[in-house]
Amino acid sequence: MSNPISTIIPKLDGNIYRVLARTTTSLSGARVAALAGKASYPGILTALARLVLQGTVLVERAGSAYMYRANREHILWQAIEQAVSAAGSVLPTLKLRLSELVRERLGARASTDCTMAIFGSVARGTSTVDSDLDIVAVLPDYLPGESGAELVDALSASVHRWTGNNCNVYLVTTNRLRELVETNDPIVESWRSDAVTFHGMNLRERLGH
Fold this sequence. Notes:
The chain is α+β, with helices and mostly antiparallel strands. 56% of the residues lie in helices and 18% in strands. The protein has helices spanning 5-8, 13-21, 29-36, 41-54, 77-88, 90-106, 108-112, 121-124, 145-163, 174-182, 186-194, 203-208, and strands at residues 27-28, 57-62, 65-70, 115-119, 133-139, 167-173, 196-199. A 4-stranded mixed beta sheet has the order 6-5-4-7, with helices on both faces. The longest helix has 19 residues, at 145-163. It starts with a helix and ends with a helix. The mean pLDDT is 93.
């Protein structure tokens, strides 16, 4: 989920398209490699040469350097841009779906009183294709235990269906969260470090309280 374009356009091609779609300025191969993320410079040059051959990327010489830009007149560029846009909205769309699922399962009142946040490698942007999605769910104390268990099952099944990734849900009640904070449980520091709240009161605020 940290590199969703690779699901639609594999290898380095998707990352190159993601970079070039964001600008109309010509970029050097080194600059493309730097913006593409975890990719070697030689690998990026090889992929750029392939995309130039296919016609979706244009190249021109500027002194001793070669400069690359997207060929927006290519007959397939619109489809490429749509793929880049769809991949860029994966995490926001996932958060929205998860929040809707919480409201559907818990009801209006209880869902308002709970907090849901993503943490771990997905939140840090370092996840790989094998990474799990880690979620912390803070539920109000008045909810029966079976409601929490059913929510965990629904979240796990839905995330796998929507993304192909497994989902780990760390479920706590409000009182249990308070206990974790008071005892300085190591998991709390992890939440403070990288948790991204997508539903309810911000988790860091609750940890502060």
